[in-house]
C-alpha cells in the first residue's frame, strides 16, 4: 500500500522510501519514481511528512523515530485488524492504530488517511472515484493531508473529525473487507453519495 500511494504522490513531491532493507528501499524508490531511499530512521530524518504503511503488529517500531519525526506531519494508513472465524474485527480495542502511533510520536502531527482504499485501486494512473476519510486533531492538519490526497485525481478527501475518530475509520476497513467477502463483490472502497436538490 505504501508503494501504491507513493507512486501517485511522487508525481508532485520528492518521495523517499524507507525500509528495513536498503536494497528493497532502493528498488521500491526506482519503481515509484522516488527521489531517494534509506532505512526508516534516515527516511524520517530527510522527510517533511511521513506516511506509515506498515502492519499493525509492527507499530511499536515507530517509537524509535520520535525525534526524527518531531514537528512533522505523520499519516497512518494502518488498519488494526484480527480475524475471528473468517470474519474481520478491529484489533486496537479501546483505541486506534492512529492514536497509538500518536502516543509513540507525541511531537508529530498525526492523522489517519487512505485506510479504506485497497492498494489495487491505485494501480492505474487514474484511480476509481473514492472518498478518503481523514481523522486529525486539528483542521489545519486535516488540510495538509487533504492537499496530498487531492493531488490524486478522483480521490476526494473528507474530514472525519479528531484523531479518536480513527477508531471508526479503521473499523470501516473491517466492514468493507467483510462486505466484499460475504457478498462476493470484489474489493470495495469508501464512496459516499450526495443527493442533489
Ligand atoms: N494493502 C492494502 O490494500 C491496504 C489498504 C489500506 C491500508 N492498508 C494498511 O497499510 C499497512 C500496510 O499494508 P500492506 O498491505 O502494504 O502490508 P505489507 O505489504 O505486509 O507491509 C508493508 C511493509 O511494512 C514493512 N514491515 C513489515 N513488518 C515490519 C516490521 N516488523 N517492522 C517495520 N516494518 C515492517 C515492510 O517493509 P520492509 O520489509 O521493506 O521493511 C513491508 O513491505 C497495513 O497496516 C494495512 O492495514 C493496506
Question: What structural keywords apply?
Answer:
Rossmann fold, 197 residues, 32% helix, binds NADP nicotinamide-adenine-dinucleotide phosphate, 6 helices
Please provide a written account of the structure.
The chain contains six helices and nine strands. The chain has one domain: Rossmann fold, CATH 3.40.50.720. The protein has helices at residues 2-9, 22-32, 40-46, 97-104, 139-150, 166-183; strands spanning 16-18, 36-38, 49-52, 73-76, 81-84, 87-90, 109-112, 130-136, 155-161. Helices cover 32% and strands 20% of the residues. Helix 1 (2-9) packs across helix 2 (22-32). It is an alpha/beta fold and 197 residues long. The radius of gyration is 16 Å and the shape is globular. It has a five-stranded mixed sheet with strand order 3-4-7-8-9, sandwiched between helices. A two-stranded parallel sheet has the order 1-2. The protein binds NADP nicotinamide-adenine-dinucleotide phosphate (NAP). Residues 1-2, 19-21, 24, 53-56, 58, 61, 77-79, 114-115, 117-119 line the site of NADP nicotinamide-adenine-dinucleotide phosphate.
Amino acid at each position: 500500500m505504501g508503494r501504491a500511494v507513493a507512486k501517485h504522490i511522487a508525481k508532485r513531491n520528492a518521495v523517499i522510501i524507507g525500509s528495513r532493507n536498503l536494497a528493497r528501499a532502493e528498488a521500491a524508490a526506482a519503481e515509484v519514481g522516488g527521489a531517494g531511499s534509506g532505512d526508516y530512521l534516515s527516511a524520517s530524518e530527510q522527510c517533511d511528512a511521513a506516511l506509515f504503511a506498515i502492519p499493525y503488529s509492527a507499530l511499536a517500531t515507530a517509537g524509535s523515530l520520535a525525534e526524527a519525526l518531531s514537528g512533522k506531519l505523520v499519516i497512518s494508513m494502518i488498519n488494526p485488524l484480527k480475524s475471528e472465524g473468517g470474519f474481520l474485527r478491529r484489533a486496537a480495542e479501546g483505541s486506534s492504530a492512529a492514536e497509538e502511533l500518536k502516543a509513540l510520536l507525541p511531537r508529530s502531527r498525526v492523522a489517519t488517511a487512505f485506510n479504506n482504499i485497497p492498494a489495487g485501486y491505485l494501480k492505474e494512473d487514474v484511480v476509481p472515484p473514492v472518498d478518503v476519510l481523514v481523522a486529525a486533531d486539528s483542521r489545519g492538519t486535516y488540510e495538509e493531508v487533504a492537499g496530498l490526497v487531492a493531488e490524486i485525481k478522483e480521490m476526494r478527501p473528507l474530514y472525519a473529525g479528531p484523531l479518536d475518530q480513527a477508531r471508526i475509520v479503521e473499523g470501516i476497513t473491517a466492514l468493507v473487507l467483510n462486505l466484499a467477502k460475504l457478498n462476493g463483490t470484489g474489493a470495495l472502497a469508501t464512496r459516499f453519495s450526495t443527493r442533489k436538490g
